[in-house]
Design brief:
single chain, 311 residues, Nucleotidyltransferase, domain 5, 10 helices
Length: 311
């Protein structure tokens, strides 16, 4: 059985035809249009292209926003210009077939739970570190959605009182301290400080800004300034995970999104901050931490699976 999964990310739309074992048979990627109408057009084009060559059972679309309980509407999106966007009706009207809508981080969490790092675990939390910070909570083998369908928005936990303004209209959200954008902000701050920020400052002087991939390259090259930027972001995430442990008590945290490509350079300081933030540490069971195994495909694989289960 083949299903289509399309994951609308902050910078890219990734779509694929996925089989019942979570394997991708065909895959496409395009840049995410800023204009919301063009964005829907791009998703429709991608779905049409993908279903042309395959006998497709169901279509699922993951989007970075608050999805209504009936899974029809993007009620709100912190980083996309959608307010009460009837995404399912728009897509079904154009594609003439039922479409399953899911939050992008829930989709990624589900993908990892079914086919990736979370296989064999019943209670896990996934955090995606990309443009924003996404959250997915799998509890007793099911996605936790909350009373209005929009639970598990872990990136919008208030992490710093009176902190940085967030795209959600609040301030101090974890997303402002533990996302890919936060990593860039820290890299800029360290470049301003001079000293260990010299390599980051040189990138900024050359390019006019410090792009995320440049920070990653410097981290992997062992640059002390880039590693310090990563340590700050990882510490924020790890401290928040200590709090999530107190509330949700998962067996496993899976870390995904673009920043997770940094692997152990990210995971080691995350775990340190987590452990030192845990209530009752040393006298309680703790969770494992791992990097997402499906990489950036987790969302499209997860939403394809959810769509297949619904039809
Ligand atoms: C949004 C979430 C989304 C996450 C990752 C957050 O800002 O509120 O709905 O899952 O970013 O894209």
């Amino acid at each position: 059985m083949l299903n289509i999964g399309i994951d609308i990310g902050g910078t890219k739309i990734a779509g694929g035809v996925v089989d019942e074992n979570g394997a991708i048979v065909e895959k496409l990627r395009v840049d995410t249009p800023i204009d919301p109408v063009a964005l829907v057009d791009a998703v429709v084009d991608m779905a049409e292209h993908l279903r042309r060559g395959h006998d497709v059972h169901a279509i699922g679309v993951a989007a970075a926003g608050f999805i209504s309980r009936d899974r029809s509407t993007v009620i709100y999106a912190a980083n996309i210009d959608w307010r009460n966007e009837p995404l399912r009706a728009r897509l079904e009207g154009r594609l003439n077939t039922p479409v399953t809508i899911e939050n992008d981080a829930n989709a990624a969490g589900w993908g990892e739970y079914r086919f990736g790092a979370g296989q064999g675990v019943r209670d896990m939390v996934m955090l995606t570190m990309g443009t924003g910070v996404g959250g997915a909570v799998v509890t007793n083998g099911e996605l936790f959605r909350g009373g209005h369908g929009i639970g598990a928005e872990l990136g919008h936990l208030r992490f710093v009182r009176g902190g940085h303004p967030c795209g959600c209209g609040q301030n101090g959200c974890l997303e402002q301290y533990a996302s890919g954008r936060a990593l860039q902000r820290e890299a800029n701050a360290i470049a301003d400080e001079g000293g260990i920020g010299a390599a980051l400052a040189a990138v900024r002087a050359e390019k006019g800004a410090i792009p995320g991939p440049a920070v990653s390259r410097l981290v992997l090259a062992g640059d002390p300034g880039a590693l310090e930027a990563l340590r700050r972001v990882a510490t924020a995430l790890g401290e928040a995970c200590g709090g999530f442990q107190a509330v949700l008590d998962p067996e496993l945290f899976v870390i995904g999104g673009g920043v997770a490509q940094l692997g152990d350079d990210l995971l080691v300081p995350v775990k340190l901050a987590y452990e030192t933030s845990l209530p009752g540490y040393g006298e309680r069971p703790v969770a494992e931490f791992t990097i997402a195994r499906l990489g950036n495909d987790a969302g499209l694989i997860g939403v394809a699976d959810l769509a297949g289960m619904e039809r």
